[in-house]
Design goal:
It is built from twelve helices and 15 strands. With 687 residues, it is an alpha/beta fold. The strands form three sheets. It has a six-stranded antiparallel sheet, with helices on one face. A hairpin with a 2-residue loop joins strand 6 and strand 7. Helix 8 packs antiparallel against helix 9 and helix 10 packs antiparallel against helix 11. It is elongated. 19% of the residues are buried.
C-alpha cells in the first residue's frame, strides 16, 4: 500500500484541505499544534473508522461543525482506491455515516462496519483481528500515535506479552490448545456415551445367532409342510371333481323325475280325456237310440207326394181367386148398370123439358124410357143374383181348399223335421266314431307313455343311491377342506413367525451395524483422544515455543541493532528478556527504562518499535502494508547528534514510503519531500 493523498473536511483544525503524499520519505513539518498529527489520525480514521477509546469521533470532527469527512486515496496492488468516511454531529453524539470505497472506479456504498471488514481484506490483516477493537497490526507496523510510542514499554509485562502474542498470531496456539481441551472433553463424553451404547454388542451378536438358528429351523419346517399343503390341495381338487360329477348326475336324476311326473300328468290327462270320451259315447248312444225309436214310429215318406198335392192345391187356389175376381167384376158392372138406370128413371120422372131441344118431354116418352130402364134393371138384378150365388160358392170352396193346404203344409214340415233328426242322428254317429277313434289314439298314447314311464322308472331306480353318494362326497370334501385349512393355517403360522423373526433379525442386524460403526468411531475417538492429548497438544506447545523463540531471537537482534545505531555510547546496551521486556545494561548493571534519559528512552522506544515492525511484517506474511511507515515525533528528547542518526535509520528502513511528523527542522535535510503545515486563526493549511 502506498498513500497518494488525503482530503480533510472539518477535521480537527482543518476546514477543507488536500494533502498529497509523494513516494519516498516525506516530512510533515510545522510548529507544535499546527495540525501535523491530525493528518496521520485522519489516515487511520479513513482506514479503520473511529473507535470509542482510541480514536473517538468527538476528537475528529471540528468543533462547531455539524459534519465532516475524510477521503483517502491510495494505491494497492495496482488498484487505485478511494475511501471516504463521513462524520455527523447528532443530538447526543457524533456518528459515522455510510461511506464508500471506490476501487478502480467501482463504487461500493458501505456502512462503517462493512467498510472495516473490506479494508481488513484489502490490507491482508488476519480476519480474527477484525472484531477486536484495536487495529494492533496497523498500530505496531504502520503508525503509532505520538503518545503511544512508549506505552508498550511501560505496560505490565503480561499485558505486553498478550498483545505481542496477538500481533505475532502466536495466540492461536494457545487457542488451539484451549479448544483442543474442550474438544477432548467432548470426545470423552462421546466416548462414555458410545461405550454405553456398544456395551451389549456381544450379547446382541449372540442374540443374532439365535435368531438365525430359529429362522433356519423354521425354514426346515416350512420345507416339510409345503408338500403336505400340495397334497391336501390335490385331494380337495379331486373331491371337488367328484362333487361336480355327482352334481351332473343329480341334474340328470332331477330331469328324469321331472320327465316322469310330466308323463304322469299326461297320462292322467289322457285317462280323463278317455273317460270323457266314453261318457260322450254313452250319451251319444242313448241319444241315437231315442232318435231311432222316434223315427221308427214315423211313416217312411220322402214328402214327394205331399209336395205335389200342395202344388195342386195352390193351383186350385189360384184358379178360384181368378174366378172370384171375374165374379166381383160382373157384380160391380151389374150394380153400376142398375144404379145408372135408377138415376135415369128418377131423373126422367122429374124432367119436363128436354135439356137439348128444350121441348116438353112427352109422358110417353118418359114411360118408354122408364120401361127400357126397368128392363135393364131387371136384367141387372138377375145377373147380380146369379153371380152372388156363384161368389158364395167359390168363397166356400176356397176356404176348404186352403184348409186342406194347411194340413198339407204341416205334414210337409213334419217330414222336414224327421229329415233333420235323421241328419242329426248321422252326425252323432259320426261323432261317436270320432270319439272311438280318439280313444284308440289315447290308448296308443297311454301305451307309449307307460313304456316311457317304465323306462324312466328303471333309470331312476338305477340312480336311487346317487343322492346319498353325493351327500357322502360332500362330507368327504368338507373334511378334506378342513384338513387343507388346518395345514395352511399351520403353514401361515410358520410364515408369519418367519417374517417376524426375519424382521427382528434385520432390525437387530441394523442395530449391530450401528453399534459396530459406533465401536469403530469409538476406536477412532480413542485414537484421536490419545493423539490430541499425547501428541497434538504437545506439538502445539512446541510449535508455540519454537516460533516464540524465533520471534524472540529476531526481535532481540533487530532491537539491539537499531538501538546501537541510535546510541553510540558503548557503555549502554539493550536486550529482550524472555517476556519481551527490554532490559538495559549500563556499565555492566541492569537498569530499568524509567532510569534513562529522555533521549535514551526515545531511542529504546523507537528501536523497539522499528524492530517490532520488521518482526511482525516477517511473521504475518499476508500483510500488505509492509512498504509504509509513519513516525510521529520520533525524536523527542534527541540531541543534535542523535538527530543525525535519523538519516541512517531512514536509509536502513528501505521502505517505499515513510511519513515523518516532526517539528525538528534538522530532519528536513534527510527527506525527499517536505509538506509544511501552518495554522492561522485556528485553521490549518498546507503552505
Ligand atoms: N475537534 C477539534 N476542533 C478544532 N480543533 C481541534 C480539535 N481537536 C484538536 N484541535 C486542535 O488542532 C490543532 C492541531 O493538532 P495536532 O494535529 O495534534 O497538532 P500537531 O501539529 O502538534 O501534531 C491543535 O491546536 C488542537 O488543539
Ligand atoms: Mg503532533
Amino acid at each position: 500500500m502506498l498513500l497518494k493523498s488525503i482530503k480533510l473536511n472539518n477535521i480537527r483544525s482543518y476546514l477543507n484541505e488536500k494533502i498529497d503524499f509523494p513516494s519516498g520519505s516525506l516530512l510533515l513539518s510545522g510548529d507544535i499544534g499546527s495540525g501535523k498529527s491530525t493528518i496521520l489520525l485522519a489516515i487511520e480514521f479513513a482506514l479503520f473508522g473511529s473507535k470509542p477509546s482510541e480514536l473517538p469521533a468527538s476528537s475528529l470532527l471540528r468543533h462547531g461543525q455539524k459534519e465532516g469527512y475524510v477521503e483517502l486515496n491510495l494505491e494497492l496492488e495496482n488498484k487505485n482506491i478511494f475511501i471516504k468516511r463521513n462524520l455527523k454531529r447528532g443530538k447526543n453524539a457524533i456518528k459515522q455515516e455510510i461511506g464508500y470505497i471506490i476501487t478502480n472506479d467501482v463504487k461500493k456504498e458501505l456502512s462503517p462496519v462493512e467498510m472495516k471488514a473490506d479494508i481488513f481484506d484489502l490490507l491482508g490483516y488476519p480476519k480474527d483481528l477484525v472484531s477486536k477493537g484495536k487495529d494492533l497490526i496497523y498500530r505496531y507496523t504502520v503508525y503509532t500515535p505520538q503518545e503511544e510510542m512508549k506505552k508498550i514499554l511501560m505496560e505490565d509485562k503480561d499485558a505486553r506479552l498478550n498483545t505481542l502474542r496477538k500481533v505475532f498470531n502466536i495466540d492461536k496456539y494457545k487457542r488451539i490448545r484451549e479448544n483442543s481441551l474442550i474438544f477432548i472433553r467432548g470426545i470423552k463424553e462421546k466416548r462414555k456415551e458410545i461405550e454405553g451404547f456398544t456395551s451389549d454388542l456381544g450379547e446382541k451378536e449372540k442374540e443374532k445367532e439365535n435368531f438365525k438358528k430359529e429362522i433356519s429351523d423354521l425354514n426346515e419346517k416350512l420345507k416339510t409342510i409345503e408338500p403336505k399343503v400340495k397334497d391336501a390341495k390335490t385331494i380337495v381338487e379331486k373331491k371337488r371333481q367328484d362333487i361336480s360329477k355327482y352334481e351332473e348326475k343329480i341334474k340328470i336324476l332331477v330331469k328324469l323325475k321331472n320327465d316322469f311326473s310330466i308323463l304322469e300328468i299326461d297320462l292322467k290327462n289322457l285317462l280323463t280325456q278317455r273317460e270323457n270320451n266314453n261318457n260322450g259315447i254313452e250319451k251319444l248312444i242313448s241319444q241315437i237310440k231315442a232318435v231311432e225309436k222316434e223315427l221308427s214310429e214315423e211313416k217312411a215318406d220322402d214328402g214327394k207326394k205331399i209336395k205335389e198335392k200342395i202344388e195342386d192345391t195352390e193351383k186350385n187356389i189360384l184358379n178360384l181367386n181368378e174366378n172370384i175376381k171375374i165374379i166381383s167384376q160382373k157384380l160391380s158392372e151389374s150394380r153400376i148398370l142398375k144404379t145408372k138406370s135408377d138415376e135415369i128413371i128418377s131423373k126422367i120422372s122429374k124432367i119436363e123439358k128436354c135439356p137439348l131441344c128444350l121441348q116438353n118431354v112427352a109422358h110417353e116418352h118418359k114411360n118408354s124410357i122408364q120401361e127400357r130402364e126397368n128392363k135393364i134393371i131387371a136384367e141387372a138384378e138377375e145377373t147380380l143374383k146369379i153371380y152372388s150365388e156363384k161368389e158364395n160358392e167359390t168363397n166356400t170352396k176356397l176356404k176348404e181348399i186352403e184348409k186342406e193346404k194347411e194340413i198339407l203344409r204341416k205334414a210337409e214340415s213334419r217330414i222336414e223335421l224327421i229329415k233333420l233328426k235323421i241328419k242329426n242322428l248321422e252326425d252323432k254317429k259320426n261323432e261317436g266314431i270320432k270319439l272311438e277313434k280318439l280313444n284308440d289314439d289315447i290308448k296308443k298314447n297311454i301305451g307309449e307313455i307307460n313304456v316311457k314311464k317304465a323306462d324312466i322308472s328303471k333309470k331312476i331306480e338305477e340312480m336311487k343311491n346317487i343322492e346319498n353318494e353325493y351327500k357322502d362326497a360332500k362330507i368327504s370334501l368338507d373334511s378334506a377342506l378342513t384338513e387343507e385349512k388346518k395345514i395352511e393355517i399351520e403353514k401361515k403360522g410358520l410364515e408369519t413367525k418367519n417374517d417376524s423373526l426375519t424382521k427382528q433379525l434385520a432390525s437387530l442386524q441394523e442395530e449391530i451395524l450401528k453399534k459396530q460403526s459406533a465401536k469403530e468411531k469409538l476406536n477412532y475417538l480413542i485414537e484421536l483422544n490419545n493423539w490430541l492429548e499425547n501428541y497434538f497438544m504437545g506439538l502445539m506447545g512446541t510449535m508455540e515455543k519454537h516460533i516464540m523463540l524465533q520471534v524472540h531471537r529476531e526481535f532481540n537482534e533487530l532491537f539491539k541493532t537499531w538501538f546501537n545505531m541510535m546510541i553510540e555510547d558503548e557503555s549502554i546496551s539493550v536486550r529482550l528478556d524472555d517476556e519481551f521486556t527490554p532490559i538495559m545494561d549500563q556499565n555492566g548493571y541492569e537498569t530499568q527504562i524509567e532510569n534513562l534519559s529522555g533521549g535514551e528512552k526515545t531511542s529504546v522506544a523507537l528501536s523497539y518499535r522499528l524492530a517490532l515492525n520488521k518482526v511482525i511484517n516477517d511473521v504475518v506474511s499476508s500483510i500488505k502494508t509492509k512498504e509504509i511507515l509513519m513516525l510521529d515525533e520520533p525524536t523527542d528528547g534527541f540531541s543534535s547528534e542523535q538527530l543525525d542518526k535519523i538519516r541512517e535509520v531512514l536509509d536502513q528502513l528501505k521502505m517505499k514510503q515513510v511519513i515523518i511528523v516532526s517539528h525538528e527542522t534538522k530532519i528536513e535535510s534527510f527527506v525527499d519531500n517536505i509538506v509544511r503545515i501552518q495554522k492561522d486563526e485556528h485553521v490549518s493549511s498546507v503552505v
